[in-house]
């Protein structure tokens, strides 16, 4: 984490596995919003995911480290993994505010997919989220989100961004691995080697 910053991007996600789509979106948003740093926060226990589909928190954290290591503006936090229990955006942002500068110092931008923002009304303790962070909804190719479909509570603090990225998904990558297909250039080379070395995602 950089010592001097005023605008921090927080990119939460399962990262199962992290891929070039995540990295392209993070870099695009960093440049577009002039953020000082992007902090990747792999989720410990995502409340909306089936445990059987997810690699261990340690594997996902290590892959995020390998992927982010080539960009001086990227860093990775194990905060949610270390905390244990289910991972909630509100708890993570509040804890990061305490760790990096205290409440009220600097702006926090939570970066997530446009499809996730569309479901923000179902998030845990959503009521005070607009008070503690701004939200950047990144659209995937072919996915368009109407601001009117976002919970009214979040419209004033949410930015919609179309990122000219490849149509890559973690689900597709896991399926290709199960079928013995190549994932080269879909994920960073270091992540590809890590997946094969540790035989991740091979079981159906």
TrEMBL record:
<dbReference type="GO" id="GO:0005524">
    <property type="term" value="F:ATP binding"/>
</dbReference>
<keyword id="KW-0662">Pyridine nucleotide biosynthesis</keyword>
<dbReference type="Pfam" id="PF01467">
    <property type="entry name" value="CTP_transf_like"/>
</dbReference>
<keyword id="KW-0547">Nucleotide-binding</keyword>
<dbReference type="GO" id="GO:0004515">
    <property type="term" value="F:nicotinate-nucleotide adenylyltransferase activity"/>
</dbReference>
<comment type="pathway">
    <text>Cofactor biosynthesis; NAD(+) biosynthesis; deamido-NAD(+) from nicotinate D-ribonucleotide: step 1/1.</text>
</comment>
<protein>
    <recommendedName>
        <fullName>Probable nicotinate-nucleotide adenylyltransferase</fullName>
        <ecNumber>2.7.7.18</ecNumber>
    </recommendedName>
</protein>
<keyword id="KW-0520">NAD</keyword>
<dbReference type="InterPro" id="IPR004821">
    <property type="entry name" value="Cyt_trans-like"/>
</dbReference>
<comment type="similarity">
    <text>Belongs to the NadD family.</text>
</comment>
<keyword id="KW-0808">Transferase</keyword>
<dbReference type="GO" id="GO:0009435">
    <property type="term" value="P:NAD+ biosynthetic process"/>
</dbReference>
<comment type="function">
    <text>Catalyzes the reversible adenylation of nicotinate mononucleotide (NaMN) to nicotinic acid adenine dinucleotide (NaAD).</text>
</comment>
<keyword id="KW-0548">Nucleotidyltransferase</keyword>
<keyword id="KW-0067">ATP-binding</keyword>
<feature type="domain" description="Cytidyltransferase-like">
    <location>
        <begin position="10"/>
        <end position="176"/>
    </location>
</feature>
<dbReference type="InterPro" id="IPR014729">
    <property type="entry name" value="Rossmann-like_a/b/a_fold"/>
</dbReference>
<dbReference type="InterPro" id="IPR005248">
    <property type="entry name" value="NadD/NMNAT"/>
</dbReference>
